[in-house]
Amino acid sequence: MQHTQFLAVVALLAQAALSFPTLKTTRSCAYTCGSNCYTNSSVTAAQAEGYKLYKSGNTNDDYPHQYHDYEGFNFPVSGEYYEYPIMSSGGVFTSGSPGADRVVFNGQDELAGLITHTGASGDDFKECTS
Ligand SMILES: *[C@@H]1O[C@H](CO)[C@@H](O)[C@H](O)[C@H]1NC(C)=O
């Protein structure tokens, strides 16, 4: 195989590898926070970790903590509400920087929704789209 042909094949493979996950995640976004896409399973995983800590009275780097809804979002479930980071990296938050996005749940382990600092001023939140 010639050098230029080889490079063309490599370029095609790289393109395929880059575009396939993008298509896949775009389709399965249950929530979008800024440009971050979250599947139902990542929401479930973040909420499970947050609720487990809430129930046991423990925290990871101060999370979960009560979310007071100063923004006045009209959540589908009643409060009190608690917020726990949901990570765009895909893993479940354990410590360190919490990023911009949060899952909000109540004391009955009901999902209220996802909120984000992205696009909001100061410490305010915006609702993620679903
Ligand atoms: C996520 O779960 C909700 C509630 O079960 C469902 O309505 C929605 O279609 C799911 N979204 C995706 C992208 O799977």
Would you give an account of this structure?
The chain is α+β, with helices and mostly antiparallel strands. It has one domain (28-127): Microbial ribonucleases (Nuclear Transport Factor 2, Chain: A, Roll), CATH 3.10.450. The chain has 2 helices and 7 strands. The strands form 2 sheets. It has a 5-stranded antiparallel β-sheet with strand order 3-4-5-6-7, covered by helices on one side. Strands 1-2 form a two-stranded antiparallel ribbon. A hairpin with a 4-residue loop joins strand 5 (101-106) and strand 6. The N and C termini lie far apart (48 Å). The relative contact order is 0.17. The model has no long low-confidence stretch (mean pLDDT 88). 2-acetamido-2-deoxy-beta-D-glucopyranose binds next to loops.
Molecules bound to protein: 2-acetamido-2-deoxy-beta-D-glucopyranose
How much helical structure, as a percent, in the residues?
A: 25-40%
Kindly state the number of beta strands.
Answer: 7
Structural class given helices, strands, pairing?
Answer: alpha+beta
> How are the strands of the largest sheet arranged?
3-4-5-6-7
- Silhouette: globular
Could you say how many structural domains there are in total? 1
What is the N-to-C order of secondary-structure elements (H for helix, E for strand)? HEEHEEEEE
Q: Which regions contain 5 or more consecutive residues with pLDDT less than 50?
A: none
Distance between the termini: 48 Å
Would you identify the CATH H-level superfamily?
Answer: Microbial ribonucleases
Number of helices: 2
Report strand %.
15-25%
CATH architecture: Roll
